[in-house]
């Protein structure tokens, strides 16, 4: 057996999530791997996928599988299902690349969000032949063609970093895909171990024992905003958003439903609730086709239109994630998360009144935060009492402007890439202008346990979802993450 390319999704759930990796975290399908595979296959290349994360296999086992397939190139794609999920997987990605170089004859490429943010450093530090900067579609097609020719000429491969003798060279970035319908009509779900994926625990609070199967779908690529703490636009080079046609999106949802029996779906878009004509056409088509779905998606406080919520709920959009970030407007605006709608509570209650659950996302340790403003954010989160919160420490993710600031100012950054995980033992958040990184992390961890042990929250959960979910929350909050920074 031989083929052109094997695409690999790396992951080490235990390293990234510690004991939360057992029953509480999601195992998400690697949609970027799946769309790359679909594009390459459409262009006539033979493609295989190894999801090392979902299958929970070691770098050595991954390499053995690749060796048996005899591909021209093995490409490790470190993308992640959220912006923070790329860098935290670079530790295991590097180990997989090392195993590939030792155990296979394949040329090894590394691509995704983090490599696009730090291509030269990635080329210097990792055991790879190539680094892919950017989206990867045009880079990989040209790279495989070049390898097939045997000429070793990479000057015509856009978005490629490579070595020529002892010199690191690179070509200009590839153009962005403009017509998503033409280039990316549907992901290659048939190449993934679909039986392995599991939804987030909160996503299935209405049916906590049925978190599998699980699917993910994108309806757009990119984000038009440039929040200082976010790195999502690193593969795209600049802020901006491109859309798939609603008809193709719903056709793909139909495939997930009818072929794989999927009900639980994540809309991967960084901001689904933005362009009303786009997302409401998708909503209307889902309703027309009569699918029974449990969907979650991202929105902003200032993009939610009250008039659309009942229809969205009818389509199965049961959860909206809101980037609230901070209670303090000076802290929030300092991070360039400007909102036209200041009455956050009104928007949350409006969403909930339509029967849609709210995930509130909060960040502790933004540059202008102090202990008082972080406490203000915690108190607001408890007052809002959303059905689920995510508490984050501010991190300087490569590809974000916060990372550029950290490097310029000489702030301490994690020594290991998995130290950028919010949940790892080695986590090292940023300090603020007023408090240390240790204080930020301790506040974040204490806030997590304060929220999930709060009687008002637990009573609300039991009333809405039942005693089993309340018990599940109690089990989750009984796990205290170990932190090197806190002396554990």
How do you describe this structure in short?
This protein has 488 residues and is α/β, with parallel strands linked by helices. Helix content is 38%, strand content 17%.
Give a written overview of the molecule.
The chain is of the alpha/beta class and 488 residues long. It has a domain at 3-170: Cobalamin-binding domain (Rossmann fold, 3-Layer(aba) Sandwich), CATH 3.40.50.280. The protein is built from 19 helices and 15 strands. It has helices at residues 13-17, 31-42, 52-55, 59-69, 90-103, 113-117, 119-125, 137-149, 180-183, 246-260, 276-289, 309-314, 329-334, 344-353, 371-384, 401-409, 437-452, 455-465, 467-477; strands spanning 3-9, 47-51, 71-78, 107-112, 130-132, 160-164, 167-170, 214-217, 220-223, 240-243, 264-267, 294-299, 317-325, 357-364, 388-393. The strands form 3 sheets. The chain has a 7-stranded mixed sheet with strand order 2-1-3-4-5-6-7, sandwiched between helices. Strands 8-11-12-13-14-15 form a 6-stranded parallel sheet. The chain has a two-stranded antiparallel sheet with strand order 9-10. α4 (59-69) packs across α5, α10 packs parallel to α11 and α18 (455-465) runs antiparallel to α19. The chain is globular. It starts with a strand and ends in an 11-residue tail after the last helix. The model has no long low-confidence stretch (mean pLDDT 92).
Question: How do the strands and helices of this protein lay out in sequence?
Answer:
Layout: E1 3-9, H1 13-17, H2 31-42, E2 47-51, H3 52-55, H4 59-69, E3 71-78, H5 90-103, E4 107-112, H6 113-117, H7 119-125, E5 130-132, H8 137-149, E6 160-164, E7 167-170, H9 180-183, E8 214-217, E9 220-223, E10 240-243, H10 246-260, E11 264-267, H11 276-289, E12 294-299, H12 309-314, E13 317-325, H13 329-334, H14 344-353, E14 357-364, H15 371-384, E15 388-393, H16 401-409, H17 437-452, H18 455-465, H19 467-477
Parallel strand pairs: 1-2, 1-3, 3-4, 4-5, 8-11, 11-12, 12-13, 13-14, 14-15
Antiparallel strand pairs: 5-6, 6-7, 9-10
Helix pairs in contact: 4-5, 10-11, 15-17, 18-19
